[in-house]
């Protein structure tokens, strides 16, 4: 199997904090075409009860994929990144990611299995503020294509 | 004119929503420039998303869009319908086929959505999204849960 099956159940230490900025939120919102002013106008965001501008629903991937790299780049895992394909992605938001947040991610390898010569790895990244408030649970399944 | 389906907050009211309601569909155009923009914004700079020669060298038909671009742009159908992007509580997809993005004409992604279930106690709706490009279903099991007013 093109991945080390022993990695199932493994967790990694929390990452260094990622500072969520209004500028990155705007850039991401423009890139996915999310025109809701809540991403760019602090007054709109505050009128809706948020502390500052909030990120689009898939912005969390930016932080989660940085966490996933711990596994993908772990030599013991034996993953060839050029063979990695994104299979599934899910976000459960406990609250929106907001400008000014300082977010740490904790990566868990929830599942490693083989299907049709390919390996499928399911990871879960728990995103929380530095003080421990849960913000988002990002679950991802990557497929590592087997040899031809 | 007042839109009776919206509460004063601008967020869609639960009372005006029924199972089977269709969300306004949208055609999302994606070209190479957009993929470079998304690569920078998302920090996913994998060359298969902007370098045609590289993409073909690893067996792809052409440059393909980031799955996460498709996922992220498709959900605007949901967030615009709800009236606040912060009301998307859950969102998950399966990436079934790549969106192939040719140099000249780019690609179109056709996105639609339908209300599949309602939770009266929590005033939440479950939306199933559909997304196709060149006739291929590019997202599967695309489900969003939203908080209505």
UniProtKB/TrEMBL annotation, chain A:
Residue ranges crossing the lipid bilayer per the database entry: none
Domain FAS1-like dehydratase: 9-137
Gene Ontology BP terms: fatty acid biosynthetic process
Entries under Gene3D superfamilies matching the protein: Hotdog Thioesterase (3.10.129.10)
SUPFAM superfamilies in the record: Thioesterase/thiol ester dehydrase-isomerase (SSF54637)
GO-annotated molecular function: (3R)-hydroxyacyl-[acyl-carrier-protein] dehydratase activity
Highest taxon in the source lineage: Bacteria
Family matches, as Pfam families: FAS1_DH_region (PF13452)
Family recorded in the similarity comment: Belongs to the UPF0336 family.
Protein name (database record): UPF0336 protein N864_17580
Organism: Intrasporangium chromatireducens Q5-1
Automatic annotation (TrEMBL), chain B:
Top-level taxon in the UniProt lineage: Bacteria
Protein name (Swiss-Prot/TrEMBL): Acyl dehydratase
InterPro entries, per database record: HotDog_dom_sf, MaoC-like_dom
TM region positions: none
Protein family (similarity comment): Belongs to the enoyl-CoA hydratase/isomerase family.
Residue intervals of the MaoC-like domain: 26-121
Lineage: Bacteria, Bacillati, Actinomycetota, Actinomycetes, Micrococcales
